[in-house]
């Protein structure tokens, strides 16, 4: 009996001593302090060597926990993340709830969320994560905040915008896209025609800014969902692939009757119907 109890205790000690797999359970709860006095709840998981860290910014009515599925995928791929409850949301309500924020004005509380991003970037800098290893990743409102924040952090390497629009609570996305020259991923749900068109405009501005020859803009489409739901259901594998490669491969013209698609791509087949030009008419009809 004593021997069995000893073996059981030894087993428990050994199991608890094993390192945890990098997933949501391995993230640290941290607090970010903004320069205008907000204390923001956040969840931080360091990246593996040579991997980037994402600053995750949620949509209206959401919170950092709404990135749970995406966080697991990031951790499994070795990427780090800093998921933030933006001011007024989740646990970051010490200065008031977002439901009481003014919805209009260039200096309203939603526009001041760029200071939340400032605090997140500075937190990562203090832990040795430089701009070239940071991705700003936002959904909905968070996408617009991420885009606007590149005005203040132009050297951040990657920007991912899920369901961005031209204007969310007077947080504008397009002006910043005329300046930012890093690699950009934009995803939009085609079922919402207005959102899809606005995301397409943002894509076009980014494409012109970064330079068409550099191929630095990736555009993803899903039909039924938007925001966090679109990310969880459709986009996670594609986003992970983009994070690993960043700059999209060259897109060659569709095959002609004389030359097959496989011949054009030197043995790598390309679906001719997946271009944005092919998608837009079918969405708008």
What features would you describe in this structure?
- With 285 residues, the chain is of the alpha/beta class.
- It has one domain: Alpha/Beta hydrolase fold, catalytic domain (Rossmann fold), CATH 3.40.50.1820.
- The protein contains nine helices and ten strands.
- The chain has helices at 2-17, 68-76, 114-126, 141-149, 174-177, 193-210, 227-245, 261-264, 276-284; strands spanning 28-33, 39-45, 53-57, 80-84, 134-139, 158-162, 167-168, 171-172, 183-189, 217-222.
- Strands 1-2-4-3-5-6-9-10 form an eight-stranded mixed sheet, with helices on both faces. The protein has a two-stranded antiparallel sheet with strand order 7-8.
- Strand 9, helix 6 (193-210) and strand 10 form a beta-alpha-beta unit.
- Helix 2 packs parallel to helix 7 (227-245).
- It starts with a helix and ends with a helix.
């Amino acid at each position: 009996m004593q021997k069995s109890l000893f073996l059981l205790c030894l087993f428990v000690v050994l199991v608890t001593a094993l390192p945890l797999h990098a997933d949501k359970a391995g993230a640290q709860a941290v607090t970010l302090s903004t320069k205008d006095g907000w204390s923001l709840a956040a969840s931080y998981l360091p990246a593996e060597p040579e991997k980037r860290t994402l600053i995750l910014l949620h949509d209206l009515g959401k919170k950092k926990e709404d990135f749970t599925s995406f966080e697991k995928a990031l951790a499994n791929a070795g990427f780090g993340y800093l998921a933030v409850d933006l001011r007024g949301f989740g646990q970051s309500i010490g200065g008031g709830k977002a439901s009481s924020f003014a919805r209009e004005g260039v200096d309203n509380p939603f526009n001041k969320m760029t200071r939340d991003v400032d605090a997140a970037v500075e937190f990562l800098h203090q832990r040795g994560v430089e701009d070239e290893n940071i991705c700003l990743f936002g959904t909905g409102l968070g996408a617009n905040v991420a885009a606007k924040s590149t005005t203040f952090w132009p050297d951040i390497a990657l920007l991912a915008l899920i369901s961005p629009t031209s204007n969310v609570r007077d947080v504008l996305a397009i002006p910043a896209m005329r300046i930012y020259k890093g690699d950009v991923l934009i995803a939009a749900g085609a079922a919402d025609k207005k959102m899809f068109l606005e995301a397409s405009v943002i894509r076009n501005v980014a494409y012109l800014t970064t330079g068409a020859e550099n191929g630095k803009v990736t555009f993803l489409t899903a039909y039924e969902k938007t925001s966090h739901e679109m990310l969880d259901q459709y986009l996670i594998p594609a986003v992970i692939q983009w994070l690993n490669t960043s700059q999209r491969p060259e897109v060659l013209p569709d095959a002609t009757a004389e030359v097959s698609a496989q011949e054009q791509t030197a043995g790598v087949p390309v679906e001719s119907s997946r271009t944005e030009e092919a998608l837009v008419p079918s969405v708008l009809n």
